[in-house]
What does this fold into?
Amino acid sequence: MRALVVDDSRAMRTILTRILRRAGVDEVSEASDGKDAIARLDGAALPDFMLVDWNMPNMNGLELVGALRHHPQWRGITIVMVTTESEQSQIVRALAAGAHEYVIKPFEEESLIEKLAILGFGLQETLADGTEPMGQEAYSP
Amino acid sequence: MTMLTNEAVTEITQEIWAALLASDGSSPLLPGDLYSGEVIAEVHISGEWNGTVRLSCSQVAARHATAAMFSMGDDEVTPADVADAIGELVNVVGGNIKGLVEAPSALSLPAVREGGSPALLGQLELAQEVRFSWMAEPVVVGVWAEAT
It folds into this structure.
């Protein structure tokens, strides 16, 4: 399974990559903004899903979602917005533009993994102490 | 109507600290009474509500938070790492505070600086300030709002 993490913060990319690798994602690539993400998609093996921040320089997450949805090869990639934007109107905009799910920062690791599982990416969620996590309600906009 | 209360700012900041810095395994963010302006990070909110969210902390706290986010040792942290990590912290704090004030509004990209005196924030008034102690180091979140 492949994933692409798109966030202008290296620290946030590091956290998200760590979570995905711990959950069993084989390949995690990183991009620093929308333009960088498109450059990395061009001619490369496509990711199964992308985690996309909203507020980024050069090309923001919403613009990236729109670009992906209008591209014949990329429109099938699953997109999860991971952002601080919590206004209901913004969530509706992102989903209308083509994002499949929406995660508001800060998030619990289990919550992110659960949302990916709902989208069909059954990842192995193991907590730091090796136990399985308790169930948690997913956010439904 | 704004829901920008001292309790809300406290809860948001503590929740973010727990979520983003939990891998550090260190103490939670506790109420504190020290002020620090050694590392200052800001985001601006503009729209129906206008203001600035400022996170300031000591160099030690900044390096430790950065090390926790990058999963590295404190001695490996570079100034660029601090700018990135503390910038992301204020970005998340600011984004959540944006959810408490009048919509629609937009959040700027974060700006981080080390050293020097905190710049005056023009026509803005201090709306809320919460002082924390994290690993015995000061962390302060201030919210400045456009004067009404």
